[in-house]
Structures are given as C-alpha cells and as structure tokens.
C-alpha cells in the first residue's frame, strides 16, 4: 500500500522537489546582493535611521527585489496548490471514476487506504512548504530587520511556521471537499474558495485576538501626527496619529481627556482651508488630545505564529477525523 501510494504521488513529489531546488538556487544567488547592501547597516553603531533608509531604497531598486516579491507569492501560493491539485482529487478521482469499489474491496480496508494517503500527502505537503517557508524566512531576515514590518498581515503569512499549517489545512480541505462533492473540478473550485475565505478572515477577525494585544496611550503632538481630515460641511475633523515601527497596529484612535473619540467640532479659523498647518497644530495641541493605540509588537511574532498554526492544524485534524467517519459510514 505504501509503495502504491508513493507511485501515485511520485510525479507531484518530483515536480515539487525540482521547483523548490530551482527556487532555492535563485535565493542563494540573490542572497549575496542583500548581504552586500546590508553591510553598511551591519556596521552602523549610532543613529542608523538614515543608513537603513538608504539600504531599503537600494534594495527596492536591486535585482533581488523581484525575488523578494516572488518569494512572498510562492509562500502563499504553494499551500493552495497542494490543496487543489493534491488534496481535492485524492478521493474525488476514485469516486468519479468508480475505482473506489475495487480499491476498497481488496485486502486493504478503506480506513487503512485513507490513513496511508493522508499521512503520505500531508507529510509531503508539510515538508515542501516547511522548506520553502524556512528558505524565505532566512533569506529575507535582513530586509525584515531593517523594515521592521514582518508583523504586517501581508508579510506575516509568508514567514515562520504558519505556511506549514496553511498547507496541511489546504490539503485536508481539498480531500474533504472532494469526498463530499465526488467530482474533481467542483472540489477544486470549492477548495480554492473556502481556503481563500479562511486566509482572508484570519487577519481581519481572528489573528489580533490570538495573543493579548499591547495597549498604549500617548500625547498627540506634531511629531506623531500623521494626518488630519476636515469636513467643513459637518464641522467634524478626523485626526490620525502615527503607528508604531516594528508592530501591527490593530486600533489607532485619537481621544480626548475623558477617553471619548475626538471628532470635533473643528475651529475653521485656526484649522481650516485658510489656516496654516502650524496654526492647526497649535490648536490641536491646546485640546490635550491623546493617541490610543492597540497593537502587537514584534515580540508577539512567534507566540502568534504558534497560536495561528495551532488553529489551522486543529482544523486540519478535524477535517481528517471527519473524512475517516464519512468514508466508513456514508460512502458505498
């Protein structure tokens, strides 16, 4: 049974391995460029903000930047490809062709058949995605250290261990949808739609609550003022303070001394179309406004990674258990 399963996964495994090797060679070639550009940052011992800005500017115009973008896309793309092309056809192909009646009436039980398929497919999915995630995380660590933005949702999902959990979830999701729909093409479409919905829902509604966020209240000054939006018709004003470097800001409110959100009314004589920015800043400074921040600092990266990976691995385990129950009691 194990040899038969290997023969079924052999082509996909060879293609995945060859792609990973080719991508790894590309990362190795461009890593030297990043190392050379980063030399001045590594040697800096004082105020390094200007040096870091120069490094990031040179990096964005270098030949390594397209590889950076490609690595980001590959980390997100590989799990879903494993789900739709490995997971979805696993049972759906057998049911669609009717070969499950022959496969499950031999000496191998349907439970053992499924167990070997899931273990083999899951192991290959986790290994290939883990190697890619490790390569991308190590390759981009100097850029992440300089930009301090690995906590931002777009980059966060391509670093650390969560891509492995995404791959396991996508694979088991594909297996489950294929088993329920019994057709390969509809299973692929359903897997893609559900997986994308889950990946979008995580940063929007779930991720911020996996680890308790930090709360900080700062005095709103001209130095940390990011923007002002005024509506002369309604007399309201929207004041936004700057976010924090190296963290993911979940909530950023401008509040008054009593803790309520500030929205005006605006004094158009000092903060209007005919007033200067200096006058507007002085008026805002006289109000005693504060910036109320709810954020996840960079130190939350690994706790959140483990928590989010646990969520998706747990979902994958539930899907696997459901597959065993369904294949034993509902498929004939």
From TrEMBL:
<protein>
    <submittedName>
        <fullName>Transporter</fullName>
    </submittedName>
</protein>
<feature type="transmembrane region" description="Helical">
    <location>
        <begin position="306"/>
        <end position="327"/>
    </location>
</feature>
<feature type="transmembrane region" description="Helical">
    <location>
        <begin position="12"/>
        <end position="31"/>
    </location>
</feature>
<keyword id="KW-1133">Transmembrane helix</keyword>
<keyword id="KW-0472">Membrane</keyword>
<keyword id="KW-0812">Transmembrane</keyword>
<feature type="transmembrane region" description="Helical">
    <location>
        <begin position="188"/>
        <end position="206"/>
    </location>
</feature>
<feature type="transmembrane region" description="Helical">
    <location>
        <begin position="68"/>
        <end position="92"/>
    </location>
</feature>
<feature type="transmembrane region" description="Helical">
    <location>
        <begin position="160"/>
        <end position="181"/>
    </location>
</feature>
<feature type="transmembrane region" description="Helical">
    <location>
        <begin position="113"/>
        <end position="140"/>
    </location>
</feature>
């Amino acid at each position: 049974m194990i040899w038969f399963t290997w023969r079924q996964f052999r082509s996909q495994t060879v293609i995945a391995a060859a792609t990973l090797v080719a991508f790894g060679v590309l990362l190795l070639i461009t890593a030297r460029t990043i190392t050379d550009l980063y030399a001045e940052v590594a040697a800096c011992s004082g105020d390094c903000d200007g040096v870091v800005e120069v490094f990031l500017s040179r990096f964005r115009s270098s030949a390594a930047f397209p590889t950076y973008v490609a690595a980001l896309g590959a980390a997100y793309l590989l799990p879903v490809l494993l789900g739709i092309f490995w997971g979805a056809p696993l049972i759906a192909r057998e049911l669609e062709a009717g070969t499950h009646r022959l496969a499950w009436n031999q000496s191998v039980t349907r439970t053992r058949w499924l167990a070997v398929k899931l273990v083999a497919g899951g192991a290959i999915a986790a290994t290939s995605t883990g190697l890619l995630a490790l390569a991308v995380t190590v390759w981009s660590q100097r850029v992440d250290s300089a930009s301090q933005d690995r906590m931002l949702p777009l980059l966060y999902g391509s670093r650390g261990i969560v891509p492995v959990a995404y791959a396991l979830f996508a694979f088991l999701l594909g297996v489950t949808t294929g088993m329920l729909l019994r057709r390969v093409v509809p299973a692929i479409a359903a897997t893609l739609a559900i997986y994308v919905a889950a990946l979008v829902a995580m940063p929007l509604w779930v991720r911020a609550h996996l680890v308790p966020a930090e709360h900080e209240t700062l005095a709103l000054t001209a130095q940390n003022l990011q923007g002002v939006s005024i509506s002369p018709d309604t007399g309201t004003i929207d004041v936004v303070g700057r976010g924090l470097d190296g963290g993911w800001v979940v909530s950023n409110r401008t509040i008054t001394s009593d803790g309520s959100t500030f929205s005006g009314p605006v004094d158009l004589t000092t903060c209007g179309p005919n007033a200067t920015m200096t006058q507007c800043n002085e008026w805002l400074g006289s109000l005693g406004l504060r910036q109320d921040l709810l954020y996840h600092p960079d130190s939350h990266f690994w706790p959140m990674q483990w928590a989010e990976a646990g969520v998706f691995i747990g979902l994958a385990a539930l899907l696997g258990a459901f597959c065993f129950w369904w294949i034993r009691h509902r498929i004939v």
